[in-house]
Design goal:
Largest interface: A-B, 35 and 30 residues
Oligomer: heterodimer
Strand order of the largest sheet of chain A: 10-14-15-13-12-11
Strand content of chain B: 35-45%
Shape of chain A: flat
Order of helices and strands of chain B: HEEEEEHEEEEEEH
Number of strands of chain A: 23
Strand order of the largest sheet of chain B: 8-1-2-11-10-9
Strand content of chain A: 15-25%
Largest sheet of chain B: 6 strands, mixed
Number of helices of chain A: 21
Number of strands of chain B: 11
Distance between the termini of chain B: 57 Å
Radius of gyration of chain B: 18 Å
Structural class of chain B: alpha+beta
Radius of gyration of chain A: 34 Å
Shape of chain B: globular
Number of helices of chain B: 3
Chain lengths: 623, 164
């Protein structure tokens, strides 16, 4: 279209849009007027919602209705397309926007809860509730839908291989059959694209070097036609593509000889090589076993490229081969940006996501079920002995507080190996989106990536295979109580070793509390609101034995403060005592929910307050 | 309506094409304080500046990498510039900011003590880094002189380079 035409088109569309808007406005005003007349006897929110609902969804489809028509005309009635090509960057952008939307939604839900609390029983609440739940529902659906747009079945790549095999077998005078399984396995589009070329190389190689000619096959007692089996399946947070042929297999000795011949390795190196390492030689640049260069292979480039391509995807190649029986190549590729189910575990204040596919089971054990064998921790799991490792030892988590009698063990399994991972808490199962840590932080041992949680925080995803490797070299500290926690418990020698924080926005109230507690001789720290209290806790200058918390405070109220504090493992057992003039049952309930252990209503006598505090901080009367 | 649209489009085009010529001689920098010194980076290498938000520690990294944080759906590394420059880490204050810098596809957030101002500096007032600094290793791109003060200009690509 020329510029003038575009101009004219825009003008026309605007005109159409304006006309529609005008019509809609007219319609809306009549609609809202009509129910208003009826609404007098009915409760207000019920009447408003149905009136607003039918009007609201309309504006969105309206402009769209115009455009497809135009498109159709422009193309001159081209065939109906079922798919469209979209730049992946756009999808990424969409994905990020939706992430933002989810965060917004979560905040909306939280605000809704707060509003509900404050205006309990008001009529407009129901309406708000409805809107919030619709928004959250749609957001979730939208998120899933966009994620799915990026996933493609691997069949897209596999589809071109039958033809390739046919061509090759004709060219090479061999009889080759291709079996494909798991073509419906979905993986990220970017990987589907990247994986094509390496697979072509591997399959060509299998045809050329792997499968023998019919005569040789018959002579060695095999079926006349060779089979190449192409398999795709999910394993842990990886997708595995396996290429299995029943050809002549790789001969480790021959590979070594060829490599020495080509100067890729020295004889000395060859002597110390294991069979697996020898198989790895085929990925070295310049390596080729073909006696002469053909159009199919022999240039010594192919497998080298395969390796670089797979490594670019952070994947692994595993070769298994037996002379005379065949070769199996296993490509293990992480499902970047795929959605996986994960188990979220907590250690101190940190959370980690473990791919659920690698989790066999979780058990809760008491500390004395952990034994030490050759300075490694183990436990008995039914008939087996399971070696244990603490997640904190692997990820260098500072362990400050560790006095619980019980531990949770997540039993991880990968292939044949098993390990028990000790964590402080199990948070739950969640569907997570894997995001890479970026160029700057890539390749960190034990971390497969990161994900963004509902609260906007980042949670790291555990790389189970790497973790198992790391576990072998980690010095175990399981079962050893951290020195600090012991020191802390034993250090109460005088009354002033006890520290209590008073959080209240009113100076008078703080003074009353201080007056009541001063006779005990304990250390008192004051904060004027939740934010300040939280900051004092975070700074860690004091070790608090208890907190007195007012409920109504500016900036951050008592409930929120309590909930925030309980997020820290360190303070999980810190006694929080609510001191408030709110006496409603709902308030008490909420206090308990947010983690308060006592509820003192104002006014109170100084003795009462003192007793409550004494009881909760386990004050030693002898001091 | 369409006239207005056309006007806006024209204006945008003008602003897009017209600006480049002027910038050439003047470099625009954003100044900030880390420790006792004032540093700056080119304004175009800054994606955004945000107030501190919570981050997640990443194990097996040097101490100056605080971890990663979520910037509207992207996971971005967070680097403490005090620690990076060998200074003692301090607690974040009201004035602490995260500067998110980018160079091509590399993006990272940097913790700075406080912002100073956006600086327009003629190119001729920018001198090379002091001779004593090793050219290859240095994170310093040059030194800007403005009336009575000296501003160190940092190499963004060097800051964003992984060195562990």
């Amino acid at each position: 279209m020329s510029e003038e035409e575009v101009e004219a088109e825009i003008e026309r569309l605007i005109a159409v849009r304006q006309a529609e808007d005008a019509a809609k406005r007219a319609q809306k005003s009549t609609e809202t007027e009509a129910p208003k007349a009826e609404s007098a006897p009915a409760p207000a929110p019920v009447a408003v919602t149905p009136a607003a609902a039918p009007a609201a969804p309309k504006p969105a489809p309206a402009p769209r209705k115009v455009e497809p028509k135009e498109d159709g005309e422009a193309r001159g009635g081209a065939a109906v397309e079922q798919t469209i090509r979209v730049d992946v960057k756009r999808l990424d952008h969409l994905m990020n926007l939706i992430g933002e939307l989810v965060l917004g939604k979560n905040r909306l839900i939280k605000i809704n809860d707060d509003v509900e609390e404050r205006y309990e029983g008001e009529a407009f609440l129901e309406e708000l509730n409805q809107v919030v739940s619709i928004v959250s529902l749609v957001t979730t659906d939208l998120q899933i839908a966009v994620m799915k747009t990026r996933m493609l079945p691997i069949g897209k790549v596999f589809n071109k291989f039958p033809r390739m095999i046919r061509d090759l077998s004709r060219e090479l005078n061999k009889k080759i059959e291709l079996e494909i399984t798991g073509e419906e396995t979905e993986l990220d589009k970017s990987i589907v694209e990247e994986i094509g070329d390496p697979l072509v190389h591997i399959i060509r190689n299998s045809c050329d070097h792997g499968i023998e000619t019919p005569e040789i096959r018959l002579a060695s007692g095999k079926e006349e036609s060779g089979t190449i089996h192409l398999k795709a399946y999910h394993e842990g947070n990886h997708i595995v593509i396996q290429i299995i042929d029943d050809g002549k297999g790789l001969d480790a000795e021959m590979l070594k000889l060829k490599s020495i011949e080509k100067g890729i390795i020295t004889e000395k190196e060859a002597d110390t090589m294991t069979e697996k390492e020898a198989f790895g030689l085929i990925f070295r640049p310049g390596f080729s076993t073909a006696a002469q260069v053909t159009s199919v292979s022999g240039r010594g480039v192919g497998m080298d490229v395969v390796k670089t391509n797979i490594e670019k995807l952070n994947g692994m190649i595993d070769i298994d081969s037996e002379v005379g029986k065949g070769t199996s190549m296993k490509l293990k590729i992480p499902l970047t940006l795929a959605i996986i189910q994960a188990l979220l575990v907590g250690v101190q204040e940190e959370y980690y996501a473990i791919p659920l596919a690698s989790v066999l089971e979780t058990v809760r054990i008491s500390k004395d079920e952990i034994y030490t064998v050759e300075s490694r921790s183990v436990m008995r799991l039914r008939d087996e002995v399971l070696s244990l490792v603490h997640i904190g030892d692997i990820f260098e988590v500072e362990r400050v507080f560790d006095n619980s009698e019980h531990a949770y063990v997540v039993v991880l399994g990968l292939a044949e190996s098993k390990i028990g991972l000790i964590v402080d808490s199990l948070v739950g199962q969640e569907e997570i989106v894997i995001k890479s840590l970026g160029e700057y932080l890539k390749g960190i041992e034990g971390i497969a990536g990161a994900t963004i949680r509902g609260d906007g925080g980042v949670t790291l995803i555990v790389d189970v295979a790497a973790l198992m490797q790391m576990a072998k070299s980690v010095k175990s500290t399981v079962g050893q109580e951290s020195a600090e926690s012991r020191g802390r418990l034993g250090a109460k020698n005088k009354a002033s070793d006890y520290t209590v924080m008073i959080v209240d926005d009113s100076k008078t109230d703080r003074t009353i509390m201080r007056k009541a507690l001063e006779p005990m001789g304990i250390t008192l720290v004051e904060a004027t609101d939740g934010i300040e209290a939280l900051n004092i806790l975070k700074q860690g200058d004091y070790m608090f034995d208890g907190m007195l918390v007012d409920i109504e405070m500016p900036r951050m109220d008592g409930y929120t403060l309590a909930a925030e504090i309980k997020k820290y493992n360190k303070y999980k057992n810190l006694p929080l005592i609510a001191v408030t003039s709110r006496t409603g049952k709902a308030d008490r309930m909420r206090g308990v929910e947010s983690g308060m252990i006592e509820y003192i209503t104002k006014p109170y006598s100084p003795e009462y307050l003192m007793n409550v505090v004494k009881r909760n901080i386990k004050f030693n009367e002898g001091l | 309506m369409s006239e207005k649209l056309q006007q806006i489009i024209n204006k945008q085009q003008k602003s897009l094409s017209g600006d480049d010529i002027k910038i050439d001689e003047v470099i625009q920098l954003v100044g900030f304080i880390v420790g006792d010194e004032e540093f700056s980076v080119p304004i175009l290498s800054i994606q955004e500046i945000i107030k501190p938000i919570s981050w997640t520690r990443v194990p097996q990294t040097p101490a100056y990498i605080l971890g990663v944080f979520n910037l509207r759906g992207s996971v971005i590394p967070l680097i403490d510039l005090r620690s990076r420059f060998g200074l003692e880490m301090i607690k974040h204050t009201e004035e602490t900011r995260f500067i998110v810098m980018k160079n091509g596809d590399d993006v990272a957030g940097f913790v700075i003590d406080r912002l100073t101002e956006a600086i327009r500096l003629p190119k001729r007032d920018v001198g090379p880094a002091p001779d004593t600094v090793n050219e290859e290793e240095s994170m310093i791109d040059g030194v800007g002189k403005q009336s009575d003060r000296i501003i160190t200009i940092l190499k963004v690509h060097k800051l964003l380079e992984r060195n562990f």
